[in-house]
Please model this.
Amino acid sequence: MEEREANHVDVESIGEDLRLFEALRTTRAIRRLRSDPVPRELIRKVCEAGCFAPSGGNRQPWRFIAVTEPERRAFVAERYRQAFARYIAPALLASRAPNFPDQKRRNIRAAQYLAEHLHEVPVHLFVAGWKRRGDPQYAALFPAIQNILLACRAVGLGASLTTVHRTFGRELDAWLGLPESIPTCALIPIGWPLGRYGRPPRKPVDESLYWEQYTNRDGTSSDE
Ligand SMILES: Cc1cc2nc3c(=O)[nH]c(=O)nc-3n(C[C@H](O)[C@H](O)[C@H](O)COP(=O)(O)O)c2cc1C
Model:
């Protein structure tokens, strides 16, 4: 998308027509993104979608911090890259096996691409929450995060859910101005997509759906 075009969107109407089930089935990790800026009003719109998420006692614990300045994004990206390199190392090793599934290999490549290009992604949206008795309540934020991912899909923005920045959690949180009681949970890199949205690879629902009781159908343990 041309920069001029990308920044002349009708924020009110954009994304309002997409049907819910189509959005659900075609929201996937979009990690190849353009560096063109994204209008602040559009980021506000997807965060507003996040605010409609459920939360315990309707506490609405989410805080959204959008980092957009290039030198600040570089700071985040440097730490993300380091954390990601450590996280992905075992998978990279495993992916050398000839029988390693192509789909997984593609996923790793896309994740690597994001790590290498994160500084170019125009919006680093952090989602922060709260602690109960000293423990971060990350689960309280995932409905809001998923709403944001769906809203990005609806308005045509590319986005993905990432968490490896937590390796540098306290350092990044303090740098964002967050007190210890409001830790970040996720970093959602957002920008105009280079590619297209599409149906992600998912196993059929009947492999995961049980009635009344779970039965071990394939003889495997769920431990990895
Ligand atoms: C809790 C959680 C944390 C994740 N953290 C990262 C991450 O730090 N970096 C990353 O590249 N992908 C991360 N992912 C995976 C992707 O966001 C994505 O969901 C997955 O690769 C599936 O992609 P697809 O929807 O395109 O099939 C995370 C997913 C979840 C659910």
Observations:
- Residues 70-94 form the longest helix (25 residues).
- Strands lie at 63-67, 123-128, 131-132, 135-136, 158-159, 184-191.
- The CA atoms of residues 207 and 220 lie 13 Å apart.
- The first strand starts at residue 63 and ends at 67.
